[in-house]
Protein 1
Amino acid sequence: MKRYRLFLVIYLLSLIIFIFNSLGTATQRFSRKESTHTTMSPSTGMVREYWFSVRFDGRFWMVDKDARIYDLHSPEDLSFPVVVTNAKVDPEKGIVEGVKGVLPDKIPEFVFEINFEKKYLTLDNSAVVKILSLVDLRSCIKVLEVTHQYLNPKVLYLFNNGKLYKIG
C-alpha cells in the first residue's frame, strides 16, 4: 500500500508541475506582445530601450530611444515590430538623424513600416496611409490608434488635416 501512495504522490506532483508550467507558457503566448524591450549594451554597460528598427548596409539594426543604433537583428529573426525605412543614418556617430522630433515615444504594434522618403505608413493589415508632411506623423499615429482596426486591408488612405481619406 505504501508503494501506491508513493507512486500517487509522485504522479500528482508531476501533474501539478506540468499544469503550472503549461499555464505559464499559455499566458506568455497569449499576452499582448510588447514592442519595447530593454537590452544591456556589453561595451558600455548601459541599459538601452528598443524603439524601432532601421535598415542600413543591407542589415536590420535596433535603435534606442536616443536614436542611437546599438545592436543588430539576427538574419533569421524577421519578426521585429517597426521598421523605419529611408531614414538618414550617420555611420560615424551611429545615430539616425531627424527621427526624435517626428516619431512618437512609443510606436504602436499595428504600424509595420514607416517610410521617411515617400512619407507613408504601412499597417499590419497591409493598409497604406500616406501623409503630406512628416510633422503630421505623430497626429496620424494618434488617429490610427483609434481607427486602425476599421481600415480595409490593401487599401490606400491619405491623412490630411487630422482626418483619414480613402483614395484607392
Note: The longest strand covers residues 47-56.
Protein 2
Amino acid sequence: PRHPRRRRRRRRACVSRDPSRSLLEPSRSLLGTFLRLAGSAEAYESLLRASCRAALARSHPSPARAAHGLYAEMGSLGLALPPAAASQLLLACARTKQAAQAKEVFERVAPEAGHAAEEAEEAAAAAVEPAALRAFALMLSASPGGEPCDASLVRRLLAAHGRALAERLVGGAGDREHGAALVQLCASCGLAEQGCGVLSTLACSGVAAATPGPALLGTLLASCAKSAAGVEHAASLLTRLGEATHPAAARLAASKCGDVWATLLDAACRTGVPAAGFGVYRTLVSRGFEPEAEASLRLLQGLRSGGVSAAAFELRAMLLQRGVPIPEGEEEAEVAVEEG
C-alpha cells in the first residue's frame, strides 16, 4: 500500500490546479485567431489552397469547384488573391477539367494581349506559374469535339508565356506535348503566324523530345490553307525548315512530308497568292519531291492568271524538264508572254 502522506500530497496538487483555466486558454487563443482572420484574405487563401491541394491529390473536380467558389466570394468582397494562389487555383481547375472555372481564373490573372505594356505582360508571365500555363493549354487543346478556341484567349495564353516561351518548350529535355497543344490551339482559331512560329521553335530547337511530327504539321497547314496570309506564313515556315541544320527540322521539309506541303499549291491559287505557292513548289523540288502534274499545271494557270509572268515562265521550264506535257492553249499563252 502507498504511503498515506504521498496520497494526501497528490490530492492537494490536484485541488490547487484550476481546470477551467487550463481548458479555456487554448479555446480563447483559437477564438481570438478566428475573430482576427474571419472574413480576411488570409483565411480565404488558406481555405482555397487546402481545397486546391485536395483537388490535385485526388484528381477530383469537387474540391476544385469549392476552391473556385471561395475565389468568387473573395472577388465579391473585394479581396485580392496572391498570384501564387491564383496559379494554384488555375492548375487545380485545369487538371480536373473544369474549363469554365479555369478560363475565368486565367482571364482575371492574364493581361489582354495588345492592351498592356510590355513590362506588365512580362510581370504577368512571371506571376503565372509554368505548370499552370501548361495544364491550361493541355486542357484547352483537349476540348471535346475539337471545338475551336477563342482567338483572343489563345493570344492571352501566348502572351502569358512571355519571352520565355521557347525556353519553356525546348528547355531541358523539351516538352513536345505542351508545344503541340499550343500549335493545335493556334490552328483551331486561325492564328497561322503564331502557330508557324511555335512549330518552327519546336522543330529548329535541336531537342529530339520537342520535335513535332507530320500529323501536327498537317493540322497546322490545313488551317493555313484557309487564307492568303496563312499560305504565306506556311511558305515562310517551309523555307525556315529547309534552311535549318538540325535533322529533325530537315525531315519535316523532306520528301516524306511532300504530300502535306503540296496541299498549299491549290490553296495558294484559291486564295490569290500563287507566288507563295510557287515558292513552296520550288522548295519541294529542291528537297527531292516532285508534286503531282495536275497540281503543278493548276499552279501554272494560277500564275498566268495572276500576272506573275516570271514565275510562270520558270515553272513552265521546270515542268518541261520533268517531262510534264503542257496543254497547247497554255503553251501558246506562255509563248505570247515571252514575246511580250
Note: The mean pLDDT is 81.
Protein 3
Amino acid sequence: MFCWVAAAHCAAPPKAKPAQSAAGEADDYKLMKIFVDTFDEIERNYVKEVDRRKLIEAAIRGMLSELDPYSDYIGPDELSYFNQQVEQEFGGIGIQVQLHPKTRRLMVMTPLPGTPAYKAGVRAGDIIMEIEGESTEGMSLSDAVKRLKGKPGEKVTIGVLHEGAKDIEQITIVRDVIHVPTVLGDKYNPDGSWNFWVDPERKIAYVRLTHFGRHSAEELRRVLKDLLAAGMRALILDLRFNPGGLLSQAVKIADLFISEGTIVSTHGRNSPKRVWRARKDGTLPNFPMAVLVNRFSASASEIVSACLQDHNRAVIIGERTWGKGSVQNIIELEGGRSALKLTTAGYLRPSGKNIHRFKNAEPSDDWGVKPDEGYEIRLSSEELRKLVDYRRKRDVLSEHGPPETEFVDRQLQKALECIVNLLEGRQEAKKKAPPPSRRSTSKPSGEASAKLPLQSSPGSSPGSKPQPEQPQQPSKAKGSKRSPPPSQKAGKSPMSSTKPRARWPQ
C-alpha cells in the first residue's frame, strides 16, 4: 500500500539555510569524505563488479529511511508509474490485468470502456498468451505492463486466448492516451457507463473514489451534478482502500460539501502555518451523506473524512483510518529523470486535532479518523478478503452483469440504514413544519443550503475556489451539532463496496 499526500511545489518558499560556521563546514566535509571513501573502497575491492548507480540510489534510500516511512527516492523506472497515478493518464491499450492465480499467465480483469482494447474485442477473462510474438509464460506483471504501454499511435499485437476457446487470436491494437477514472460507481451498466444507484427507489447514490489524482475533484463534481439532476436525495461516498493523492484535490473535494470554515491546515519547519478554507461558491446542496472509511483509508482520504466529520456534514462509518498526517513534496532530480519525495509538512484537521499516527502511538491517542459513535463496523481479515473479491467481480464489464453472491457488505449496509434514517427524519420534520407565511421575504443567500428540499437541484459549477491563507489559527468547525441517528432496519438494497489493487498495463 502506498500512502501519500503530494504537493507539486513547497507551500511557501523555503527559508534560506543558516550560514554555517567554519567548524560546521569542516564537519560536513569529514562526513562526506567518509561516504566517498566507503564508495571508493566498495568499487575497487568488492569481490564482484558493482553498479555505481545502484549503490548511489541505495545510499539515498538509506538516508531517507532514517527520516520517516513516507519520504522516498523515486528512480527513473518508478517515476513514470508514479506520474501516471497522479496525472491519471498514460499511453496504452486500456486494460486492467493481473496474473492468473493458477497458470500465472497474464489475465485481463476488464477492458476500460471506449479504449482501443475494448473496441478491438478484448474481454474480461481473456488470457494474453503473447505480446509481439513473445510468450508471456514466466513474464512478470511489471514487465508485461511495460510492453503493453507505449506511445499513442504505435501498434502492439497480442495473442489472446478467449474464455472457452482453443485457438489463440492475434489482435493488433493501436495505442492511445488512456484516461484512468478515479470516480467509480457500484457496477457497470450494459453500455459501459457506471451505475451509481445503490438504492434506486429512494434515490440514494453510491460513489467510490479510488485515489486523489489530478482530475478527481472535477470528475466527482461532474458525477454528482448529473446525479442531482437525476433526483439524487442522499450520497454514500466510499473512501475505503483509498491511499491518498494530491493535497489540492482533497481540498477541492472537501470544499464541494461545506460552504465555510477550515478544511485543513498545514505546518512545516521551513514554511509558515497555512490554512485552507471553504468558500460558498460551488457548494453542493446539503443532502444527507455518509462516508465509508477503513484501516486502509489514508492521507488525502483522512483530510476529506476529518473535515466532513468536524463540520457535521457527514456520518463517518466503518473502521478507524490509517493515520497519515504528513505532506510530501515532489522534488525533481536529474532534470526530471528521478525525484525525491520528501516530507515537508504535517497537517491538522479543522478541530485542530492530530491525524498522524506517530511511532509508538497508543489506540487512546489522537490519530486517524474514527467512525462516529455507533457506526464502527470492523471487518475480519477473511471478511476483508471477501469484500475485495466481491468488489473486483462487480468492477468487471460484462454483458451479463456481476455474478450473484451471498456476500453482504456490512459497512455499506450500515451506511444505507443511516441514510434511510436521515431521509425519514427529514420527511417527518417537513410534515411537522408550520405552513409558510403568506408574506414572503427573500432569504439571504447564506441560508439557501441549510433547508433544502429532499430532491435537490444541481449545484453550480465551482471555479478555482480553495485557496491557502496565511498563518492563522484554524477556526472551530461550524454547523449545528447532529448526533447520528440510531440504527434501524432498512429495506433490502443492492450491496456494493470497495476497490481491489490492480495494475493498469499499457
Note: The two ends are 21 Å apart (CA to CA).
